[in-house]
C-alpha cells in the first residue's frame, strides 16, 4: 500500500514485489509486508575509518556529522483502492499506484554528553520532513482510499498480546469484542478516505483520546498496551518521526586512539 524509500533502485525492487503480491490478492494476508520504510542507517558500525577523523567540537567533519548537509529524498508510493464498496463486501482490491510523493529529509543530532577525555559522545538523532513539490507526481491534496493503518496496527498489537496469555482462547472473544466496539463507536473502519497529506503528515486517531476506555477491560486480563508513539494522537507515516528524538546513541569519537564513529550503545543498551 505504501512504500517509503530513499534509494530509487531499492524502491523499484520492492514496488515490483508489492505489485505481485497485490495481484495475487494477498492484500490483507500480506498487510505487514506491504509497508516498507527504508530509512538510511543513522549510525556507522565502525568501518575502517580514515586516519585522523575525529568528532571534536569545532571541526568540519563534526559540523557535517551534527547537521547532515546532504539532501535526502524519501519517495512515498501509495496504492489507492479503486473499488472500496466491493472490497468491503469481500471482493479483491483493485489497486492503482499513485505518486511518488516526495519529502525532503533533514537530519541532525543533538549532543547529550561527552565521555571521559572526549573518547565517546552520546547524542540524539533527529529528522524532519518537508514536502517537495518539484519531485512529486500529483499533489498533497490527492484523495486516496487506504487501509486504515492504525486500526490494523492496534488490532495486531492486541492480538499479539492476547495470544501470549494463558486461556487466550477464552479471553480473545472478549478482548476483540471490546476493541471492535471501540472502533465502531469511533467510526474507525477497515478503510479510510483521506488525502495524501493526511496519510503522511497525520490524521487524528481518535481512539487514542479515549484509550483508557480500551485499556480498562484489557487490564483485567493483564494486558497493557505499549506506547503508540503517535504524537498528539495523530497517525501519519512521517508525522510520527517528524522532529522526534531517536536514540540516545553513543559512539567513539576517534579521539585518544578510539575508532571513529564506532558504535557503543543504543538506548543505553
Ligand atoms: C514536520 O513539521 C514541520 C513543522 O511543523 C511541518 O512544516 C512539516 O509539514 C512536517 N512534516 C510532516 C511530514 O509531517
UniProtKB/TrEMBL annotation:
Q: What is its main location?
A: membrane
Among its keywords, does the record have Transmembrane helix?
yes
Which UniProt keywords are listed? Glycoprotein, Membrane, Transmembrane, Transmembrane helix
Report the protein name in the record: Uncharacterized protein
Q: According to its UniProt record, which protein family does this protein belong to?
A: Belongs to the CD36 family.
**Top-level taxon in the UniProt lineage:** Eukaryota
Which Pfam family would be a valid example here?
CD36
Protease is among the record's keywords: no
What are the record's GO terms for cellular component? cytoplasm; membrane
Molecular function per GO: scavenger receptor activity
Subcellular localization is given as:
Membrane
List the transmembrane segments. Answer: 25-43
Amino acid at each position: 500500500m505504501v512504500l517509503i524509500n530513499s534509494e530509487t533502485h531499492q524502491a523499484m525492487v520492492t514496488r515490483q514485489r508489492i505489485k505481485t503480491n497485490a495481484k495475487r490478492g494477498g492484500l490483507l494476508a500480506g498487510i505487514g509486508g506491504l509497508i516498507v520504510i527504508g530509512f538510511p542507517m543513522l549510525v556507522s558500525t565502525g568501518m575502517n575509518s580514515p586516519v585522523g577523523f575525529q568528532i571534536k567540537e569545532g571541526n568540519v567533519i563534526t559540523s557535517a556529522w551534527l547537521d547532515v548537509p546532504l539532501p535526502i529524498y524519501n519517495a512515498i508510493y501509495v496504492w489507492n483502492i479503486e473499488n472500496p464498496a466491493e472490497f468491503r463486501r469481500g471482493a479483491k482490491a483493485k489497486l492503482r499506484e499513485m505518486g511518488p510523493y516526495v519529502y525532503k529529509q533533514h537530519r541532525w543530532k543533538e549532543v547529550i554528553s561527552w565521555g571521559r577525555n572526549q573518547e565517546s559522545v552520546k547524542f540524539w538523532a533527529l529528522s524532519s520532513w518537508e514536502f517537495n513539490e518539484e519531485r512529486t507526481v500529483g499533489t498533497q491534496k490527492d484523495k486516496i482510499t487506504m487501509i486504515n493503518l492504525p486500526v490494523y496496527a492496534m488490532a495486531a498489537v492486541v492480538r499479539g498480546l492476547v495470544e501470549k496469555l494463558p486461556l487466550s482462547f477464552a479471553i480473545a472473544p472478549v478482548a476483540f469484542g471490546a476493541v471492535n466496539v471501540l472502533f465502531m463507536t469511533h467510526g474507525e473502519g477497515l478503510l479510510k478516505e483521506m488525502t495524501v497529506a493526511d496519510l503522511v503528515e497525520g490524521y487524528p486517531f481518535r481512539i487514542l483520546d479515549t484509550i483508557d476506555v480500551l485499556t480498562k477491560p484489557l487490564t483485567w486480563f493483564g494486558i497493557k498496551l505499549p506506547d503508540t508513539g503517535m504524537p498528539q494522537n495523530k497517525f501519519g507515516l512521517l508525522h510520527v518521526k517528524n522532529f522526534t528524538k531517536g536514540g540516545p546513541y553513543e559512539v567513539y569519537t576517534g579521539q585518544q586512539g578510539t575508532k571513529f564513529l564506532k558504535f557503543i550503545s543504543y538506548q543505553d543498551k
